[in-house]
Design goal:
Helix content: 40-55%
Order of helices and strands: EHEHHEHEHHEEHEHEHEHHE
Number of domains: 1
Number of helices: 11
Distance between the termini: 23 Å
Radius of gyration: 20 Å
CATH architecture: 3-Layer(aba) Sandwich
Number of strands: 10
Largest sheet: 10 strands, mixed
Strand content: 15-25%
């Protein structure tokens, strides 16, 4: 059984945050975790019209967070919110990233859930992504939920797709994927992508090019993938691809109708993060939530049996 004690949902009142909150509330309900609704209030945040930034009282922001949660989760009144028993927090700091990290350090959660806008190109290069920054630096697993994606999540017809690169980090991701699949009644599918060197193989001699890959190698990789997966669980399907891992994993998630993708991440910062990572590429492109775990993070499973479906929200 999915064993979470504390789930933090980041709330910025956007449509993306609403979709993320639905997922966070569902996971908290399934696991019996305490749900924290966190709003980051950025200090010195100017309105853009030249006027001095006006501080909103924390109490007013808490009321707004509660109303947002009631509307998003379809709660009829404050009694419904009371039954949910969320912890509502407003943290002020110089940036959203700093505020969220400070709160995570204080409450030591098992999972952070954030919405994403799926930005790419120039807007992402100039403005960055709070979600991607948190994936790289959060001390706990992070579930990023795309604004454009469905809110149903994993289930019997929506598998959990786990990306594997044969590292211990990806073994932890596979274990987390199996826990998530068990809690939601979803099958587990595993994918490994042989990275293609692209048009500049001289810059990456250790990476295969298209002409270097043949069916026999594909069969060998598949056998290795099968042995690797068997050390953790029994997946319903195995997939081996060749190309850019971020693009292929996201495309496969769409093709398979995945309810979630699970990946291990290096938690890179600085130049390495600027260059990009597989997890960031998947987060930008996948049509479903993406669960990322750094090497030291994990999702826990309790020994109690779990039904394939959970009861409806009691609101």
């Amino acid at each position: 059984m999915l064993s979470l004690r504390t789930v933090v949902a980041a709330i910025d009142f956007s449509p993306g945050a609403a979709v993320a909150l639905v997922r966070a509330a569902d996971l908290a309900r399934r696991s019996g975790a305490v749900l924290h609704l966190l709003h980051a209030d950025v200090l010195f945040h100017a309105s853009g019209d030249g006027a001095a930034p006006a501080a909103v009282p924390a109490s007013a922001l808490r009321v707004r967070v509660e109303r947002f949660a009631m509307e998003t989760l379809g709660l009829r009144d404050a009694d419904g919110l009371d039954r949910l028993e969320p912890t509502v927090a407003v943290v002020r700091d110089v940036s959203v990233h700093a505020a969220v990290l400070r709160y995570l350090g204080a409450v030591d959660p098992d999972l952070l859930v954030v919405g994403t806008h799926g930005r790419s190109g120039l807007s992402r290069a100039l403005l960055g992504s709070v979600a991607e920054a948190l994936v790289a630096s959060a001390p706990c697993p992070v579930l990023t939920v795309p604004e454009r994606g469905a809110v149903d999540g994993p289930g019997p017809e929506a598998p959990v797709l786990v990306g594997v690169d044969f590292s211990e980090r990806s073994r932890g991701a596979l274990a987390a994927g199996c826990v998530l699949a068990e809690a939601t009644g979803a099958p587990v599918e595993v994918v490994h992508v042989v990275r293609d060197a692209g048009p500049y193989p001289g810059l990456a001699p250790h990476i295969l090019s298209l002409v270097d890959f043949d069916p026999e190698q594909g069969a060998a990789v598949r056998e290795r993938l099968e042995r690797f997966a068997a050390t953790v669980c029994s997946p319903a399907a195995l997939h081996v691809g060749l190309g850019a891992p971020g693009r292929l994993v996201a495309a496969l998630a769409s093709e398979r109708g995945a309810g979630a993708v699970v990946l291990g991440t290096h938690g890179r910062t600085g130049l390495a993060r600027l260059i990009g990572s597989v997890s960031e590429a998947v987060i930008r492109r996948a049509p479903c939530p993406v669960l990322t775990l750094q090497e030291a993070a994990s999702l826990r499973s309790s020994p109690r049996p779990v039904a394939a479906t959970a009861p409806p929200l009691p609101f």
